[in-house]
UniProtKB/TrEMBL annotation:
Keywords: Membrane, Transmembrane, Transmembrane helix. It is a multi-pass membrane protein. GO terms for cellular component: endoplasmic reticulum; Golgi membrane. InterPro entries: Rer1. It comes from Acanthoscelides obtectus (Bean weevil). This is Protein RER1. GO terms for biological process: protein retention in ER lumen; retrograde vesicle-mediated transport, Golgi to endoplasmic reticulum. It is found in: Membrane. Belongs to the RER1 family. Pfam families: Rer1. The lineage of its organism: Eukaryota, Metazoa, Ecdysozoa, Arthropoda, Hexapoda. The chain crosses the membrane at residues 51-71, 134-151.
Length: 188
């Protein structure tokens, strides 16, 4: 009986370790990703308080470029010349070819690059040669102007080619199409 309990408890402990490994490999939810990014912004703000304006500005521009690459599709529909007269677009009906949204910069590489650049920025703050005195309001104004122009262009691109880089929950299917194109509604 004692051997049986030892075997059962050993099996349970091994199962728990396996579950911990599985949980460690799953991607974090969006809220955790936002928490990570707010931590990065906090580091940038603390660098700003000490006068490292050029490093913070360069880091902000680099993060903006990474974010734009994260939002854009890997295969840009604007460069798809095999499309119809009115331009390429993503499928909107069930009988069209399904092409999933594949990012130009995957999420893991996005967070890896953000982390790496923030660490490099922090290392740069150890050297006084990077603490260049500048009139910081001009840098802030230029950064927000660049941010608005870039995001406006990106949002127009999303609207024009009908893609949304984010998903909202599990899809709910109403029915399916037959070969004739008639929609058959399945009971709920």
């Amino acid at each position: 009986m004692a051997k049986m309990q030892m075997v059962c408890s050993s099996t349970f402990i091994a199962w728990l370790h396996g579950q911990n490994l599985i949980c460690a490999g799953t991607p974090p939810p969006l809220s955790l990703g936002l928490k990570k990014y707010t931590d990065v912004v906090d580091v940038e703000i603390s660098m700003l308080e000490k006068g490292w304006y050029i490093i913070t500005y360069a880091l902000g521009i680099y993060h903006l470029n990474l974010f734009i690459a994260f939002l854009t599709p890997k295969i840009d529909p604007a460069m798809d010349f095999d499309a119809e007269d009115n331009g390429p677009e993503l499928p909107t009906r069930a009988n069209e070819e399904f092409r999933p949204f594949i990012r130009r910069l995957p999420e893991f590489k996005f967070w890896y690059s953000v982390t790496k650049s923030t660490i490099i920025g922090l290392i740069c703050t150890f050297f006084d040669c990077f603490n260049i005195p500048v009139f910081w309001p001009i840098l802030v104004l230029y950064f927000f102007t660049l941010l608005c122009i870039t995001m406006k262009r990106q949002i127009r691109h999303m609207i024009k080619y009908r893609y949304l880089p984010f998903t909202h929950g599990k899809p709910k299917y109403q029915g399916h199409e037959e070969a004739t194109g008639k929609v058959i509604v399945s009971p709920k």
